[in-house]
Amino acid sequence: MRVLIVGAGIAGLSFSAHLQKFGIRPKIIEKAKSFEHIGYVLGLWSKGFDTLAEFGVREKVEKLGYESSVFNIRNKEGKITKKLHFDHLIKKYGPVILLHRADFHELLQSLNKNVPIAFGISVEAIKQSESTVLVTFSNGEKEEFDVVVGADGIHSIVRNLVFGTSFLHYAGIHGWTYMVSPRFSFPKNASEIWAGGRFFGVYPDQSDKLCTIFAKKMDAHAYRYNNHADYLKKEFSDFGWIVPDVLSTMTDESTIYHSTWDEVTLDDWYKGRVVLTGDAAHSSVPATGMGGCMALEDARVLAEELAANETAIALKNYAEKRKDHVDMVQKQSEFIDFLINIESSFGMKLRDFLLRFIPSALIVRDFEYLLSG
Fold it and tell me: Which of 39, 117, 125, 306 is the least buried, fewest Cβ under 10 Å from its Cβ?
């Protein structure tokens, strides 16, 4: 079987690893010229990285990452309004690990040593027949495949070419990610400040840096600043806890990554012999921390189906097996995002009051629902 994987991120590399165990060696292209910058901190539930258990990944992930069992929600001043304990879920489903995305990506690359990645190459055109897919690459070359897999992320070129451009939606939020080498003690657990359309999160890992995320609810084109540090120092100057310390370390603009937060929703993940996986098929705001897990689960199911069935049946089975659970995760992400971004004073007070008195186990139960699917 001739398989083209477009995109060498988590979705593409994990899918490639699974294909190889069935004797299928795919072709991988990646539009980036190198892997110089591979994101920040990634949250992985064992449900996700256990899809790679047969490759001995779990032990490596646990060694590289930081096991998190407590999650704190804080108000603007930094006071904890809710402490969520995940011990019950960890005992039942395995740990949740925070690790640097680059470390996990390097681990996935090690599972693909026999499959070269063509960097700096993208797709210009896709033409399908009943039996093949003819792909024109950005370097002018053309090649036929039995299946083309779009694993090229939220701004998927494959999705745009085959499915159209109407499936990417702005989620109403701008975000800034910043890795800081703090001059203060690290928080031991992941924590987030929810403050009226503004958000600050910290996510420790095993490295000597701390991943921080700032976010603000605003219109898509409302942000027109070139200096992210100055904007963040002004916009979040009234936040307490460790926020002033984090802001004081912002001196290099190149260390602050800014983006809009977008969502992708499609009813159909495949068309003919072209199929989407990971963020290319379904991207949510990062409220549940399950985006990486979703991509890993997609990869295993898709590879198993392609190895066991004729292409049309395989793609149909893949979508049917995965879509309901992914839809559930997306809806939960939207609900948590709604709670985070309540802007009215009354709404925030009501939310914080309810969080204070609703048992932690009742809130954590929603995550169990996602993990058991």
Answer: 125
